[in-house]
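Task: complex structure prediction.
Instruction: return C-alpha cells for all chains below.
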Amino acid sequence: MKLKSILLAEDSPMDVELTMEALQEHHHIAVVEDGEAALDYLYRRGPFASREPGNPDLLLLDLKLPKLNGLEVLENIKKCDLLRTIPVVVLTSSKEQPDLKTAYELGANAYVVKPVVFEQFMEAVRQIGQFWANLNETPPTAPSSLSPRP
Amino acid sequence: MTTLHFLKDHDGLAPESPADNPHVDFFRRAARKLGWVLIGLTFLGMVDSVLGGYPHEAHAHALHGMFPHHSLSSLAAFLLIGLGVISVHATPRATRWLQTVSGIAIMVLGTVATSESPVNAWQHGGLTAWVLLLLGFCLAAGGSRIPIIGYVRQSVLFAIFLLCGLVVTGQAYAVQGESEYLDSFLNLPWTTGLMGLIAGHGLLFQHPNFGIMRLVSGEGFGCQIMRRLLPSVILLLVVLGWGLSFGENLGVYPSSFGEALYVVLAATGFSGILLFTAASLNRLDHERRAREEDLRRSQSQLQAVLDQIPSIICIKSPAERYLMVNKQFTISTGLAATACVGRTAAELLSPVAAQAIQRGFRAALSTQAAVSGVDVLDMPDGPRTFLSAHFPLLNAGGEAYAVCGVYTDVTDIKRQEEEIRTLNESLQEKTRRQEAANAELEAFSYSVSHDLRAPLRHIAGFGKLLAQRNQGRLDEKSLHYLDVIETSVSRMGALIDDLLSFSRASKTELMTRRIDTGELVAEVRAELTAQKPDRPVAWDIGPLPPMQGDPAMLRLVWMNLLSNAVKYSSRSEAPRITVSCDAGVFAVRDNGAGFDMRYADKLFGVFQRLHSNQEYEGTGIGLAMVSRILERHGERIWADAAPGAGACFYFVLPGPGERSGATTTGLAAAPSAVDGPADHAAGKDSA
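Output:
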C-alpha cells in the first residue's frame, strides 16, 4: 500500500523534528518552511515545478509562517478549485480566539493547538495523521492539470 | 393752563388717532342712524310737497305744514346731507370727495331756496337757506384734513344747533306775539329746525375723534361726565322750560310763580343729576383705584420678575433711549437705573458694546421681528459673552413703539463648554493611549501564546526523546533531572495558559444575558465530580436566583470557586461544600484548609498564593480572574476564613432587570488586593 503523503508547513526545525518523529514511520512527509514555499509546492512551481504530480493527502499548517502566513496560505488554497479538497489541519501554538475563528471561516478542516506536554503532542499528531491521512477519504483530483497560477 | 395741558395731552383738539374706543364707534353708528332718520324725514317732506297745497286749502293732509313744502330744493339738500352722513364709512378718499361735492351742491340748493323765498332773510325760506348753506359748508369741510377747517366746521355746527334749537324750542313753547321778527323766525316749521338739528348732530358725530367731540367720546372721567350730564341737563331744561311755558299758557299759575317753580325744580333736578353723577363717579373712581392697584401689583410682580432674572433686560424707545432697565442691567454696568433711563447706549457704554447693542436693536426695529445673536461686550469686570435677543414691542396698530433687549451672560457656560471640550480632548487622548496599550497587550498575549509555548514544547519534547534514546542507560539521578524538566515545563505551560485566560477575561467584550444559576452550578459540579470521581464530596446546594451577566465568564467564576472548594477540602475527613444565596449575596463555603486572614490582602492578586504548590497545586491566577470578572460586571467578591476551619467566599451579582455597573472593557480596572468589607477580606489561591 502506498504511503499517504503529508505536506507539513512549519518554520520551526524543532517542531518539524518532533512532528516527523510522530508521523514519519507511516507517511511520506514533505516539509516547507514558509507560506510561499507551501503554495509553490501545491501549485508545482518554482523549486517544486518538477515534483511528482498529485495533491498531498493532508496539509499540516502552522499559522506563524514567514512570508505568507498560514491564514493567507489557507485562503489561497480554499479559493482554488483544484486544491480546496485537500484536508487542512491547522497545527499551531495559538489558542487565540480570532485565529480560531478566522481559520474556520477560511475553510480549515480542523484546528489543533500543539500540546506542550510531549506525550500529548505525539499522541495528537499521530491521531491527526491516522484520521486525516489514512481514514479520511478525499475526492479524486486530476493532478496533471495543476499548473502555476497566473 | 392746566386745562390746555389736559386738552393737548389727553383729550385735546387734535386730529383723530387710529386707536378707537367703544364710544367712538357708538357715535359713528349714531351718525349713520341720524343720517337715515334725516333721509326718512326728507321723504316724508317730499310726500307732503307732492300731496300738499297750502295751509288754507281744504284738502290739506295730515302732514301738511310740517315741512317746508314750498322748497323741494331744500328737501333735496337735506337728502344729500343724509346721504353724506351715512356714507361716513365708505372708502375715505371717495367719501371725502363725495362730501365735498355734496356740500357744494347743498350750498347751491340753499342759494336757490333763498332766491325762492320772500325778501326777508328772517322769513322761513330765507332762514332755511342759511341753515342749508351752513350745513353744506360743514358737509364739504368734513372731508378736509386741515385741523383749522375742522375747528371752524365744529363752531359752525354749534351755530346751527343754536339756530335750530331756538326754532324747535320756540315752537314747542309756542312763543309768539312778542316781536314781529321773532314771530316770523319762530314760525318756521319745527321740522326744519328738527332736520337741521339731526343733520348737524349727524355731521358732528361723523368725526367722534376730532376736536370737541373727543371730550365726549374719550375714555377719561371728563368725557364720562360729559356723556352723563349733557343729555340729562339739556333734557331737564327743555322739559322744565316747556312745562313752565305750558302751565303759564294754560293759566294754571301766574308767571312769577312759574319762574319760582322753575328755579326750584331746576335746582332739584340738577341736584338729582349731580348726586347721581357723583355716585356714579365715585363708583368709577373706586373701580379705577382697584384697577390701578391691580396694575401696580402686576407691575410690581413684573418688576420683581425682571429684577430676579439673571439676564440684562432693557426697553428702548425708537430713538434708542432707555425707557426701562432691570436690576441686572444696573449690576452689570455699575450704573443706577435713574442714570440710564432717557439716555442712549452710546452715552452709557463703551463704543464697542454700544455698537453691538445698537446693531441688534436696529435689526429688530427695522425687521419688526425678534433678532438673536451672540455678542462679546466690554463690561466693568472685563469682556463677557452674551446671548442677545431683541424684539419689538408693538402697539395696537402693529407699529413698534419700543424694542426690548435681553442679554444673558453665557461667559461661564462658554468657559465650562471649553473646559468640557478640553477634558473631552484629554479623554480622547487617554482613550487613544489606552487603545494603543490594549493593542500592545494583545500583541504581547499573542506572542506569549505562540512564542513562549513553542520552546517549552521543544524542551519537553527533546527531553523526552533524550530519555527514550537512552532508555536503560540513564542512572536514577539523570531520570530525576528529566522528570524535573518535564514537571517544570508542564507547570510553565499551565502558567502561560492561566495568564492568557486572565488577559482574555480582562479584555473580552461582555455579552450579558439571563443565566439560570442553579443549572450552571449543577453543570460545574458535574464536571468537577467527573474529574475526581474517587473523591466523594457532600454538596449542599440551596435555591439560587437567576443572574444577569456574561455566561462564559460567570461559568469561569463558578468553576474557579467550586474547584477551589473541592481542592482545599480534599484533605478533610468529610469534604462538604455549601452553595447558597441570601439577599442577593451568593456564598460558596467549604470545610477545607481555610487560610489566615492576615494575608487576606494577597488573596485576589495575580500569582499570589497562600499555600505552597506541594500542599495544593495552583498558579495563583484563578481568584484574580474571578475578582476581575466580577469587577467587570460592576460587582465584587470578599471572603471569610480561618486556618483549618474552611473558607467562605461571598459575591454579589445583579439579577435580570437589576442595575449593574458592568464595564465593557476591564483593562483599565486593576484587581484590588482586598475586596469587600475588611473583616471579610481573605485569601486563597486558584485551582
